[in-house]
Amino acid sequence: MSDSEPRPKPSFFERLSTMLSGAPEDREDLLDMLRDAHERKLLDADALSIFEGALEVAEMTVSDVMVPRSQMDVIEIDDAPAEVIAEMVETRHSRYPVIGENRDEVVGILLAKDLLAYLVNPDAFSLKAVARPPIFVPETKRLNVLLREFRSQRNHMAIVIDEHGSVAGLVTLEDVLEQIVGEIIDEYDYDEEADNIVAETATKWRVKASTEIDAFNEKFGTTFSDDESGTVGGLLMQEFARVPHRGESITLGGFRFTVLRADGRRVWLMTVERV
Hints:
single chain, alpha+beta, CBS-domain, Uridine Diphospho-n-acetylenolpyruvylglucosamine Reductase, domain 3, 3 domains, 4-stranded mixed beta sheet, 12 strands, 33% helix, globular
């Protein structure tokens, strides 16, 4: 290349490599350098968030993100196909633990698409035959290790067990990835144009965490203060004094708030039930 020809613009990773050439001494030093890169316009906010999330995952365990046992939607091995389909329509997941006599006896994982075989040939369908073998992981397993295992074994769901061998909950590939990239929107999530408060029953609603407290108070006749936070999600984090995990509940002002979706940085969606 002649001196008169313009040099190609350094790639993102070349610029990042130059910025990190000082060899950070520890995790905090690395975070400081990444944040400095953001301030110098070498990283945008989304890229910085992903780097921070990836570093956080290495410090987190399965118990930090799992769906607790009490919040698991399950299929019983002896359920009739019609009952299974009704449960799937109600809960709208793509995978379900299949249990025997109780939740400590997880005998398989059922994929929603496996029910297509029932629609094609109802007489020959067997829930026991289509259920996949379950994968079990301890609640102390690091998330970065679990992510590597999910990728190598091509799994999307694992059953979490405690130190006594009892089922503590479940964890999915999406749960882990959301700690890195933030909320992953799927076809069953509310879009940005949908109502913030949607009734499920006469006493239960799905509420976006971004709902303003004033709007919530007007809808439910509550008197929550917006002095500390302007949204319902902020109110929950204020009461928990941290970002609550999916499945965690708290009762405030005569309502039970249960987190449906959350990542390492914020709450996204919850159910609100009058108690």
